Amino acid sequence: MRDIINGFLRFQQDVFPARKALFKTLATGQTPKALFISCSDSRMVPELVTQREPGELFVIRNAGNIVPSFGPEPGGVSATVEYAVAQLKVTDIVICGHSDCGAMTAIATCACLDHMPAVKHWLHYADAARMINESKNHANEKDRINGMVRENVIAQLNNIRTHPSVALALAQGGLTLHGWVYDIESGSIDALDAATNKFVSLAQHPTSKL
Ligand SMILES: [Zn+2]
């Protein structure tokens, strides 16, 4: 904890004064253009891998980068998606999974989660992805986990389309969805390509979108 507090002290002393103008502008409003939904994993830092400044990304992070389908009792993720789309009018939503994801590994390896009932319940929002991934042949466990990470991004893209605010924005042509998977070891990103419904290198296909 001491490291975290020391980090804040450095921020206050060195970083903040150097960027005072930016923070003054941000003090009275935000106009992020994108909603970025990723895992809570400490190794996947949206602002770092996309090189965004404060004020540029509206972010949701949770275990497994999951977006529950819209339902009669919307929770925190649904409210945050709605605020981003209906109020902030973001033009793009990125759902970004990542390699070595603990949540997706637990699903893909059928790990017992009885000691973590909340996690067990939460990961049911990835059931569609689990069913599809289990129906496929995988060369080994690593392949099965990588497949789960990718199927989960696709499933959560399907889930987010059930949100009224998202459905409306998509129908009006004011919103674009993106499905990404970040590889921790190589720093590369694969993006879901609408034309082929396959993941392709974002570096080689920078305009990939759905
Ligand atoms: Zn994860």
From TrEMBL:
EC top class named in words: lyase
Organism superkingdom: Bacteria
MF terms (GO), sorted A to Z: carbonate dehydratase activity; zinc ion binding
SMART domains named among the record's database cross-references: Pro_CA
Cofactor(s) it depends on: Zn(2+)
Annotated residues for binding of Zn(2+): C39, D41, H98, C101
PROSITE patterns: PROK_CO2_ANHYDRASE_1, PROK_CO2_ANHYDRASE_2
Entry keywords, A to Z: Lyase, Metal-binding, Zinc
Stored InterPro entries: Beta_CA_cladeB, Carbonic_anhydrase, Carbonic_anhydrase_CS, Carbonic_anhydrase_sf
Cofactor note: Binds 1 zinc ion per subunit.
Catalysed conversion reaction: hydrogencarbonate + H(+) = CO2 + H2O
The keyword Metal-binding belongs to this UniProt entry's keyword annotation: yes
Listed EC numbers: 4.2.1.1
Pfam families recorded: Pro_CA
Signal peptide: none
Function in brief: Reversible hydration of carbon dioxide.
GO terms classed as biological process: carbon utilization
Family to which the UniProt record says this protein belongs: Belongs to the beta-class carbonic anhydrase family.
Protein name per Swiss-Prot or TrEMBL: Carbonic anhydrase
